[in-house]
Amino acid sequence: MSFFNKMLASVGIGSAKVDTKLESDTVAPGGEIRGVVEIQGGNVEQRIDDIYLSLNTTYVKESDDKKYTVSGLIDRFRLTESFVLMANEKKVIPFSFLLPIDTPISIGKTKVWIATGLDIKNAVDPTDKDYLRVVPNELMDSVLQAMGGLGFRLREAECEQAPHRLRRRLPFIQEFEFIPTSGPYRGRLDELEITFLPISNTDTEIWMQVDRKVRGLGSLFSEALNMDESNIRFTVNRGDIPYMQQKIQSIIQSYA
């Protein structure tokens, strides 16, 4: 390669292009993602130091009483060792990986995407971005269906910076905020929040915040002191699925 072509490659002119193609863009946490990464060489030979897939979302962070949205890395997967991509050469690299069980689902304001990048020394890093449709797994879906069966409507779902008591592998959690629109808790609860804290594909811990409706002067004082809220942690597993609505109702009933 001539010195001039090397210089062109180092500033990203005539360089490689990358395109990721997924077999399916719909997956549940813990499910498998499969596809190929297609790399098209440019006008010059280039050394590819790394090919990686990064799984990302955004979440709301708070600092100095201000809220702002930042990107959050869920996981990163390296696909190949270093290699030389010849001019105009095309490579197709298959891949598969399991979506982490703590990946947020695509609902409300939450978006999840895969970014594909080539690590090219001294050059512009070409990237490709592909959005996923992350759907609830069987256990999560059972809990969400149970909430609907009890008369709750999902008002909002959003990823937020995790408080220390709920922080695990990731710096954020996904909160599901429900309001009672019918059923036994309409008029008794203001809202109810749920956060899934997965343990495995078959078990998940749930953090639930129950916000009772204000009634009378005593309740007004309770609300001022945040005593009208109860924080509950419990675990559900696949064996609970046939009876999920009854299980959740019995837990809410103790705090409503």
TrEMBL record:
Superkingdom of the organism of origin: Bacteria
Lineage: Bacteria, Bacillati, Bacillota, Bacilli, Bacillales
Protein name, as recorded: Sporulation protein
Any Pfam family matching the protein: Spo0M
Organism: Cytobacillus mangrovibacter
